[in-house]
Design a protein that fits this description.
The protein is built from 23 helices and 8 strands. It is α/β, with parallel strands linked by helices.
């Protein structure tokens, strides 16, 4: 959703590189480009004006210090101001001192309230160890009650639905009865799904206000479709005036619309964005961290979220066993079964394109990421499953006839099987070195990804073909060998964001090939 904004901001920052100091003209030119970028992203005009004024004031009064060059300095200022307009610090749910905690969802029809109710309940159950109950108080939209029951079943959460809906029943009375039900069944959280409309009207506001008065919610969350642009801000203000709410939930953040709503709502309404929904699955639900979102927009990645996803997806005990195998005997105990298990654990974190997108500098390779076919991982799994237990335990025994049999069994080519086996040995060598604390050698690619061909042998030949010869002078050749890229100093940004070590952020060569980058 923020790709266009990220691209425009990156272009604005590149123009500052190589400058020893910031002039008023530089600041004005950069501010103009940032202003255009924000307006194109559909950020509300008052928010843009306030943002640009703050950036210009800070940039004009700041001096180059602590190893920060002008580009880094402006990025630092823009990052901090982005965090401010996104709400500042992360806001947690307020839990009632005496259960149950009541959370009421409000918003227009089509914003995704019902699905989000299930996502929130699942998150509370698994992350916060609560015992939530969903309440079907949307009795107007056709099949809204049935949809909530299906979502609740998928989330493993009970649903209180005494009325069939479809225009039958009193939602305020349902909400009252739900409180008695929650207390008797000892549910710690009650999530009330309310009705919406295609537009803001008096009847909608009155019903929402009546439900609010009936259950006295600890949190009222306004659910807004992040794809509706400026209307999101107008609708949010109308709900704030008519019903009131404590926090905002952004749905459909995985869409391709402009993401200005996310950058505007917190600033205009004074209510923070608390959660973000970025997919159709119940697991596609995250706490909204303003600092992490600002980092993503500026192309700096989101390593903290990546680490948190890894912690949720990987089993600590299994990971310890795998690490022990890699540390002993040069990793020879690490088999294709272990490799498959690791790959499946990574897939639990989400699409690989999303995982790579959290890495710093990944926005430079978004075209390659978008063209990556997730089905290639399925083909790798098919190849491994077509092997015998002995072959998976010791891939060295896989000769020509075995490769032909495996290829036929998995519906692939012999070259694909050869490439997988070869890359497995490269990956095992790399992971063994990392597990033993020897650093990270060249990162091997995985078969079947764009630009990779069918195996690693061809890539190695191309590397040899393109290898430059050193100087004939021994002293000069030794000097060339000692030249290493200068790493950013502590507190210094990488070169991709205007760092002093020059050039753009570079991924390892093998990872470039894996993504099809030239």
């Amino acid at each position: 959703m923020f790709d266009t904004l990220s691209d425009r901001l990156s272009t604005a920052f590149k123009n500052l590189r190589g400058k020893g100091k910031l002039t008023d003209a530089d600041i004005d030119a950069t501010a103009r480009e940032i202003r255009v970028a924000l307006l194109e992203a559909d950020v509300a005009l008052p928010v843009v004006r306030e943002f640009i004024a703050a950036v210009k004031e800070r940039a004009s009064g700041a001096e180059v210090r602590g190893g920060l060059n002008p580009a880094q300095q402006v990025i630092k200022i823009v990052n901090e101001e982005l965090v401010n307009i996104l709400g500042g610090e992360t806001r947690e749910l307020r839990m009632a001192k005496r259960p149950p905690t009541v959370i009421m969802l409000a918003g227009l029809q089509g914003a995704g309230k019902t699905t989000l109710a299930g996502k929130l309940a699942k998150w509370l159950k698994e992350t916060k160890h609560q015992t939530p109950m969903l309440v079907a108080a949307d009795l107007q939209r056709p099949n809204a009650v049935t949809q909530l029951q299906v979502v609740g079943e998928r989330a493993g959460v009970p649903v209180f639905a005494p009325e069939p809906g479809n225009g039958v029943g009193d939602p305020v009375e349902v909400a009252r009865k739900a409180m008695d039900e929650a207390r008797s069944k000892q549910h710690s959280v009650v999530i009330v799904d309310t009705a919406g409309r295609l537009g803001v009207d008096e009847e909608l506001m009155k019903q929402a206000a009546d439900i609010r008065d009936a259950v006295s919610p600890d949190e009222i969350l306004f659910v807004v479709d992040a794809m509706i642009g400026q209307d999101a801000v107008v609708t949010a203000q109308a709900f704030l005036d008519g019903v009131g709410f404590d926090g905002v939930v952004l749905s459909k953040l995985d869409g391709d619309a402009r993401g200005g709503a996310a950058l505007s709502i917190a600033q205009v309404t004074g209510r923070q964005v608390m959660f973000a929904s970025n997919g159709e699955k119940l697991e596609d639900f995250d706490v909204f961290h303003p600092d992490r979102m600002a980092s993503r927009i500026l192309g700096m990645g989101d390593m903290l979220s990546l680490i948190e996803q890894a912690e949720r997806s990987f089993d600590a005990e299994e990971a310890a066993k795998t690490a022990a195998k890699l540390q002993k005997k040069g990793g020879k105990d690490f088999t294709l079964d272990d490799f498959l298990a690791q790959m499946q654990s990574v897939r639990k974190m989400g699409p690989l394109t999303k995982i790579f997108g959290m890495l710093p500098g990944a926005n430079q390779f978004k075209d390659q990421l978008e063209n990556f076919d997730e089905r290639e991982i399925d083909r790798i799994e098919a190849v491994i499953h077509s092997m015998t237990p002995a072959e998976r335990a010791d891939p060295k025994i896989i000769d020509g006839s075995r490769r032909a049999r495996i290829a036929k069994g998995s519906g692939t080519e012999v070259a694909t099987v050869s490439g997988l086996v070869e890359r497995f040995f490269e990956a095992r060598k790399m992971m063994s070195a990392m597990a033993s604390g020897k650093g990270m050698p060249g990162m091997p690619g995985m078969p079947g990804m764009p630009g990779m061909g069918v195996g690693g042998r061809k890539a190695k030949q191309q590397q040899k073909k393109g290898k430059k010869r050193g100087s004939g002078n021994p002293a000069k050749r030794a000097n060339q060998g000692n030249q290493q890229p200068q790493a950013p100093q502590p507190g210094q940004l990488p070169a991709a964001f205007g760092g002093q070590n020059g050039g753009d952020f570079e991924l390892p060569d093998d990872l470039k090939k894996m993504l099809g980058s030239n």
